[in-house]
Amino acid sequence: MVVLGIETSCDDTAISLIEDGKDIYSKKISSESILKRYGGIIPEIAARKHEQAVVDILIDLKDKFDLTKIDYIAYTNEPGLAVSLHVGKIFANTLGLILNKPTIAVNHIHGHIFSPFINHHEDISYPFLSLIASGGTTSLFLVNSVDDIQILNETGDDAIGESFDKVGRALGLDYPGGISIDKIYDETKVNKSLLPFPKPNQQFSFSGIKTKILNLINQSNMKNQQVDVIELASTFQYWSINVLIDKIKYYQNEYDTKLITIGGGVSSNSLFRKEISKLNSKNYIPEQQYSCDNGTMIAFLGFLKKLR
Ligand code: KG4
């Protein structure tokens, strides 16, 4: 079974092909340079970029693969920026009409949930716990099947990746802040007394730590004092990642699950990966290229839905 996956929910345009659960083609056009220029995502600019990028990738793909061999066309239908999703949906449905192939609407977050199993779907065993941590999401799920995904906890304010990006920006680091903060993280510089950890059964919340760091930066600026960028960045990363780990441990105990997966851009964080490997469970972490938004996870979930 060959499934094409189209991902345009945010700023990156990604198109991939999955054959029997295995990645056989994937291409992503990132808008990092535009984002660096503006310091964040501007929906209208992202959508216009998708319009050109989907065509550019299709031209590349048709030289390498016989498009008539595609069985299904999967595309991200939610959640995301409305204008960006719209480009992907129209593109998928138009291609489906031309090739006479059915389309499959795929939830972006659910795509992330199954991304650690790309290339080895036979390893999926239900139920499992899944934590998705990205620029727009911080949610923990109990996954009973492709169609039965129960949300256990989600952020009441900022998503963790969004907080990484805002803190990174305030510290004068390159966008995206998550990658920049991770690069300069230094365990010996962590100030553990900065903010107490919340109770593990409470809702995720990242605005408190973000505001605390932003206030410290403002106070230093007002006093004309130098900001210790590495200390603040490391403290923020340590606190935020440990909140994720505490929650995973709590729900793992509550539901007695032996299998844990993580996904979303923040799942590529080095401290997160290190801490998760210490848990007493079987852990599935997406390969680096499947952690951030990608088309393969959309094609892969389309494949799993049809396999069922
Ligand atoms: O899943 P993703 O590519 O896009 C969506 O938000 O949907 O995630 C992007 C987010 C950004 O906020 C970025 O700062 C964060 O993932 N990120 C990281 C790391 N790499 C990407 N955060 C912490 N550590 C990283 N190594």
Characterise this structure.
- The chain has helices at 32-38, 43-64, 82-99, 108-114, 160-170, 177-184, 207-222, 229-255, 270-276, 288-291, 296-307; strands at 2-7, 13-19, 22-29, 72-78, 103-107, 128-133, 138-143, 149-154, 259-263, 282-284.
- The protein starts with a strand and ends with a helix.
- Helix 5 (160-170) runs parallel beside helix 7 (207-222).
- It is 45% helix and 19% strand.
- The protein is α/β, with parallel strands linked by helices.
Task: Give a nutshell description of this structure.
Helix content is 45%, strand content 19%.
- Specify the oligomeric state: single chain
**Rg from C-alpha positions?**
20 Å
Mean pLDDT: 94
Biggest pleated-sheet summary: 5 strands, mixed
Instruction: Give the topology string: H per helix, E per strand.
Output: EEEHHEHEHEEEHHHHEHEHH
- The share of residues in helices is 40-55%
Query: What small molecules are bound in this structure?
Result: 5'-O-[(R)-(carboxyoxy)(hydroxy)phosphoryl]adenosine
Low-confidence stretches: none
Structural class: alpha/beta
> Shape from CA axes?
globular
Strand content: 15-25%
In total, the number of strands is: 10
Q: Order of strands side by side in the largest beta sheet? A: 3-2-1-4-5
Distance between the termini: 12 Å
Number of H/I helices:
11
